[in-house]
Specification:
The complex is a heterodimer. Chain A has 6 helices and no strands. Chain A is mainly α. Chain A has one domain: Arp2/3 complex 21 kDa subunit ARPC3. In chain A, helix 2 (about 35-45) packs antiparallel against helix 3 and helix 2 (about 35-45) packs across helix 6. The radius of gyration of chain A is 18 Å and the shape is elongated. By secondary structure, chain B is an alpha+beta fold. Chain B has a domain at about 180-255: Beta Barrel (Thrombin, subunit H), CATH 2.40.10. Chain B has 4 helices and 12 strands, in the order H-H-H-E-E-E-E-E-E-E-E-E-E-E-E-H. Chain B has helices at about 1-30, 35-70, 80-115, 270-280, and strands at about 120-125, 135, 150-155, 155-165, 170-175, 180-185, 190-195, 200-205, 220, 235-245, 245-255, 265. Chain B is globular and about 75 Å long. Classes of the chains: A mainly alpha, B alpha+beta.
């Protein structure tokens, strides 16, 4: 059941990513929604689920991209998923600020592995990606923190609203 | 104890998955020819998801548009509200039709101007990763599309077909990091190669320091790469700088606004080089 939920979340992120990317293809911050989902899954479900969801999501992302090598994003997301899962089990990551730091760090780590491997294999040269990576890390972190808040607060808010309606009827 | 087991297991799992990826990457680095089967199959399946999603989003947008239109006239009386809503919806439809007709008219003009066999296609999706610039179109091998066919818009060159599936195809945009095209400066015929950088500008490389290139010059395809037909607009020179003793550093602003694309033309005319590469015998 949980595995189905994770797969569904990854597919939804990929679908959303491919749909939204055509509207922000030019000159805007490119959010990696798939990475956000992988880190979210890793923080909530642990390193094993994190690394598996990272591997699957990354491989699919590789297969759908024009990158010359299949597996680079898979490897990057596997490492990030595992590390985020380990952090989630070793530290208390339940406040927005620590979560922001984890999402930010995960994006930077992903970029280091992804761009590093392509550069080492001499396939793509990324120039100076510092500003782009920083912007993407900030955007990913904001989306991740908001996602956590929404998932945690939404059921309570719905319940309160239902209770208020019941009181009014009486 | 159980926690230690889980941790150990996830460690082994991590090593196994990483090793699998390393082997996968190594295999590709050793043999660089052709599209991997996994890539083609995954793309074929996922393009159907993109097609469905694109249809769903169009439906949702239509419903949302109607809802907004109705809210806008809520203060009016019922009769007026209905009439106004009808008129607004009709006007929007007419405007959308006019916009679409204008877009198609431009595509038709381009088709006549190109004097090449082309097929129109609609964009149904974009890249799965923000690191690569691709689009998905609703035409595929069933419509005669093959890898390396040029994709153009009224404003200029869009990119090339990289992975065609039966009913859709992935198009690599000219601004993708892996994209390149042979070009010339229209005014002086100075030759070079434009390469994408993943951003919204192109770099024109291998232009001799002695060449006459100025800001504002029009850059068009040279046809030398056998992918893009000769004379298609690529963009305009935005800046020219010295880059060492031999070459200039030239930045080109693409003529096409890649975020505004809705329809494109795919040049389906085969070239001898494409046929030779595909092993087709006439």
């Amino acid at each position: 059941m949980r595995a189905a939920g994770v797969i569904l979340a990854v597919v939804a992120a990929l679908a959303l990513q491919t749909t939204l990317a055509r509207f922000v293809v030019r000159g805007t911050v490119a959010i990696d929604l798939v990475l956000v989902v992988v880190v979210y899954v890793a923080l909530t479900s642990g390193p094993a689920t994190g690394l598996l969801s990272g591997a699957i999501a990354g491989l699919v992302q590789d297969a759908l991209s024009t990158g010359p090598i299949l597996g680079i994003a898979g490897l990057a997301k596997t490492i990030v998923g595992f590390l985020a899962g380990v952090i989630g089990t070793q530290f208390i990551v339940s406040q927005p600020l620590p979560r922001f730091v984890v999402f930010f760090g995960a994006t930077v780590a992903h970029a280091v592995v992804f761009m590093g491997l392509y550069t080492v294999l001499d396939r793509i040269h990324f120039g100076n990606p510092t500003a782009g990576v920083a912007a993407q890390a900030t955007a990913n972190a904001l989306v991740g923190v908001v996602a956590f808040q929404v998932v945690e607060l939404l059921p309570g808010a719905v319940e309160r609203r239902r209770a208020a309606k019941t009181r009014l009827r009486r | 104890m159980a926690l230690v087991d889980i941790r150990q297991r996830s460690g082994f799992l991590f090593l196994g998955v990483v090793l699998g990826h390393v082997l996968l990457i190594s295999a590709q680095v050793n043999s660089r020819s052709g599209v991997p089967v996994l890539e083609a199959v995954t793309f074929g399946i996922f393009s159907e998801v993109q097609r469905t999603l694109s249809g769903g989003i169009t439906g949702v947008r239509r419903v949302w548009g109607s809802y907004v239109g109705l809210r806008h006239v809520k203060a009016e009386n019922e009769e007026l509200k209905r009439q106004l809503a009808d008129a607004q919806i009709e006007m929007q439809q007419q405007r959308a039709l006019a916009d679409r007709a204008r877009g198609l008219e431009k595509l038709l003009e381009l088709r006549d101007h190109l004097n090449l066999a082309t097929t129109g296609a609609q964009i149904i999706g974009a890249a799965a990763s923000p690191d690569f610039r691709t689009l998905t179109i609703d035409k595929g091998t069933r419509d005669g599309l093959r890898p390396d066919m040029a994709v153009v818009a009224p404003a200029g060159v869009v990119g090339r077909v990289v992975v065609p599936s039966a009913r859709s195809a992935k198009v690599q945009l000219l601004i993708d990091r892996n994209a390149a095209a042979g070009v010339i400066v229209e005014r002086t015929r100075a030759q070079g190669v434009v390469v994408g950088g993943g951003e919204d500008r192109l770099q024109m490389q291998y232009v001799s320091e002695a060449s006459d290139v100025a800001v504002g010059d029009l850059v068009v395809t040279s046809g030398i790469d056998t992918i893009y037909p000769k004379g298609l607009v690529v963009g305009r020179v935005e800046s020219v700088e010295k880059n060492g003793p031999a070459f200039k550093r030239i930045v080109v602003k693409p003529a096409v606004d890649f975020s505004q694309l809705e329809e494109v033309l795919v040049v389906v005319t085969p070239t001898p080089a494409k046929d030779a590469a595909a092993g087709v015998s006439e």
